[in-house]
């Protein structure tokens, strides 16, 4: 493992997933990431077990996902002693990471000027739902609302015939993408500080991430004055080789063979109908575009006569870009996922095994160090000891409710 962030200390005052994911990634890359949680309540993400969203007795995967590899301290930031301890931690940190809203940052005195008063050289990174400016700067949000719905992604991804906008593909879909972006921004800010001595403020938001992800569609809407890029269902795709086809056992394969003149002859031959190569309706790309529904119907019939496994064997490895449409569970055993180490086997604090996807970057061919998330306040004693507090003083703070 190449611990590229070895020696970097990150102080995280954040909850839920979007911004904590950034801290988890930095921990995976070797940083010492200290998560500050309320002594009693902790990160509200931990409450998903009691809400029934995570099976009781199972792995709290939505805690593990964003909090991998961190240490946790239970600290009451509203108390005078808690704030004093926080500022001591700020003074020895390289990065302060938060997703608290402006009003909360002001109330707790953890905004940029407050933190920089204790450490002028610290990188101050904040993630939000809607950005730091504008009428909604003080509003919170989640990825399914701000990243997915407000960015135009939900509208663009939803077929007209469905009658309602689809939700994002899964929990934390926008959160993990946004967290990776923040981790990258922090990395760039650390490099800038090393080269110039200047400590930067790093900002990102779920809305910014959604707009970035929808950048091509937004550019097209602006360029052509259209509401959205036209949507097509599988029966009338303009390019029959950029489409999804159902197999006879109800599974699907996805083709993205953009150079249709190159791949049409090879594909139709492999599917057992080479006469489609010289069929005047499909003789070149322009002809296939004019007769797109017929071209789609021909391929649909050919794939519909094959099982999912047969279709994958026919497509092979050399006939353009294609992929099986996998379920999440099938991804767990995908040979490419396993061969490249895109899934790690871990055990939580209770020794229960689970699997977690590491950050999608390798350094010198090696992934980061993916470790379990900490228990609530698991490292409080260790961290306070590092600040020079003896056990008697730590016990006093525990009795007072200042720390966990």
TrEMBL record:
This is Crotonobetainyl-CoA:carnitine CoA-transferase CaiB-like acyl-CoA transferase. Gene3D superfamilies: Crotonobetainyl-coa:carnitine coa-transferase, domain 1 (3.40.50.10540), formyl-coa transferase, domain 3 (3.30.1540.10). It comes from Pseudonocardia parietis. Pfam families: CoA_transf_3. Coiled coil: none annotated. InterPro entries: CoA-transferase_III, CoA-Trfase_fam_III, CoA-Trfase_III_dom3_sf, CoA-Trfase_III_dom_1_sf. It comes from the Bacteria.
């Amino acid at each position: 493992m190449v611990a590229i962030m070895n020696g970097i200390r990150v102080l995280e005052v954040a909850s839920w997933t979007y911004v904590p994911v950034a801290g988890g990634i930095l921990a995976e890359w070797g940083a010492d990431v200290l998560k500050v949680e309320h002594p009693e309540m902790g990160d509200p993400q931990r409450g998903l077990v009691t809400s029934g969203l995570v099976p009781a007795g199972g792995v709290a995967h939505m805690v593990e996902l964003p909090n991998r590899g961190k240490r946790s301290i239970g600290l009451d930031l509203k108390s005078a002693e808690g704030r004093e301890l926080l500022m001591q931690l700020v003074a020895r940190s390289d990065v302060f990471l938060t997703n608290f809203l402006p009003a909360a940052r002001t109330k707790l005195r953890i905004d940029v000027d407050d933190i920089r008063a204790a450490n002028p050289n610290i990188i101050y990174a904040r993630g939000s739902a809607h950005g730091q400016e504008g009428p909604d700067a003080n509003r919170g949000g989640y990825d399914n609302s701000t990243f997915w719905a407000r960015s135009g992604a939900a509208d663009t991804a939803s077929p007209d015939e469905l009658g309602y906008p689809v939700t994002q593909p899964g929990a934390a879909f926008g959160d993990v993408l946004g967290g990776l972006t923040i981790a990258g921004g922090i990395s760039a800010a650390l490099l800038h500080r090393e080269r110039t001595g200047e400590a930067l403020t790093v900002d990102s938001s779920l809305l910014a991430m959604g707009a970035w992800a929808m950048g091509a569609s937004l550019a097209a809407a602006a360029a052509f004055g259209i509401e959205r890029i036209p949507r097509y269902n599988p029966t009338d795709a303009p390019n029959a080789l950029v489409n999804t086809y159902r197999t006879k056992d109800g599974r699907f394969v996805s083709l993205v063979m953009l150079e249709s003149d190159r791949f049409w002859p090879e594909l139709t031959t492999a599917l057992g109908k080479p006469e489609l190569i010289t069929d005047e309706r499909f003789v070149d790309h322009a002809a296939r575009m004019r007769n797109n529904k017929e071209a789609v119907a021909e391929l649909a019939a050919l794939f519909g006569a094959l099982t999912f496994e047969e279709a994958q064997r026919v497509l092979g490895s050399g006939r353009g870009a294609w992929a099986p449409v996998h379920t999440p569970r099938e991804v767990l055993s995908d040979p490419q996922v396993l061969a490249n180490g895109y899934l790690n086997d871990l055990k939580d604090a209770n020794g229960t095994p689970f699997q977690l996807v590491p950050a999608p970057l390798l350094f010198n061919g090696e992934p980061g160090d993916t470790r379990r998330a900490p228990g609530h306040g698991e490292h409080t004693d260790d961290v306070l000891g590092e600040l020079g507090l003896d056990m008697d003083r730590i016990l006093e703070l525990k009795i007072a409710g200042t720390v966990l």
